[in-house]
Specification:
alpha/beta, Rossmann fold, 12 helices, globular
Length: 299
């Protein structure tokens, strides 16, 4: 019980504090992504390296922030790799309503943005070198999207949240559920910067029954579709939110069971926000991308 309480206390804190902005030496360019008439606000970290470059679609946690993701976008740009981030539908200045399904559609819109001819030229994008990655909710959403989109072959997932596992914890204890509901109410419009779609709040998902959750959000069940891809999972041993034991190691074992050959797992002695290892975290992602360069033509 104490462990679960600590787990959710940390989640409550994360919902009231924006993502920590890593020291930036360059200002990313503001962008607007059109998702079927719904405008999503984002940032594009443009590398100064010459030529058309690899580009990462980099996904925030929930509810995210209006700048970088753990400082990774900045470091990617410094290393010759472009990075695009955006706010999910219904969060911050992005239009629309927030839901897991809409997050998946948001990712698709980001890929469409990257492939638009004017953006290819403006941001020097090599569309043969596109990578998907994310942190926390974004890490889980990146894996779900990659599982059902064969064109995505390279994925990095940092402290990924499995939504089905999360909902099991949420519904498993009335006291914890009450704590979460209060915190979410504080960040939900009109008081906060999140606007949930109908049926998409945690309360509504729980009331509908967690057995009704689409299986695409169960990352372990996505393992057969992910086994052929280049994947790195990164976690923190001191992460009390998306713990190694509940979220990351079971996913790793599921991928191993499916004989995933291009799979790596790295864990830092750090918390959910990697406060003590942001630089080495970014370097780990960049170095790993270089190891898959032969297959994906990443520089």
């Amino acid at each position: 019980m104490k462990t679960l309480a600590l787990f959710f206390n940390i989640i409550l804190l994360s919902l009231t504090v924006r993502e920590v902005v890593f020291c930036q030496t360059a200002i990313p360019e503001d962008i607007t992504i059109n998702r079927n008439g719904i405008m999503l606000k984002g940032k594009f970290f443009v590398s100064n390296e010459a030529g058309y470059l690899s580009t990462v679609v980099l996904l925030h946690g929930f509810p995210g922030g209006e700048s970088d993701v753990l400082g990774i976008g900045e470091k990617l740009a410094q290393s010759g790799i472009n990075a695009l981030t955006f706010n999910y539908s219904g969060t911050y200045q992005s239009e629309g309503k927030c839901s897991w399904d809409n997050m998946q559609s948001d990712i698709a819109a980001a890929f469409k943005f990257i492939h638009q001819p004017e953006n290819i030229i403006k941001f020097k994008i090599d569309t043969n070198k596109i990578i998907l990655g994310g942190w926390c909710t974004g890490g889980g959403m990146a894996l779900t999207y990659a599982a059902y989109h064969p064109e995505v072959t390279v994925v990095f997932s940092i402290a990924p949240s499995d939504q089905t596992e999360f909902m099991k914890i949420y519904t498993g204890n009335p006291e914890i559920k009450k704590m979460m509901d209060k915190s979410l109410a504080d960040i939900t419009a009109p008081n906060g910067h999140v606007r949930f779609d109908t049926g998409s709040s945690l309360q509504e998902i729980a009331e509908a029954g967690i057995d009704k959750i689409n299986l695409i959000y169960d990352l372990k069940k996505c393992a057969p579709l992910l086994a052929s891809k280049d994947i790195i999972l990164i976690g923190g041993w001191d992460d009390k939110q998306t713990t190694m034991e509940t979220f990351i190691l079971p996913l790793y074992r599921s991928l191993q069971k499916e004989k995933a050959k291009n799979l790596r797992l790295i864990a830092f002695q750090d918390d959910h926000y990697f406060n003590n290892s942001k630089s080495i975290l970014a370097k780990t992602v960049i170095d790993w991308l270089k190891t898959v360069s032969e297959k994906t033509k990443i520089k």
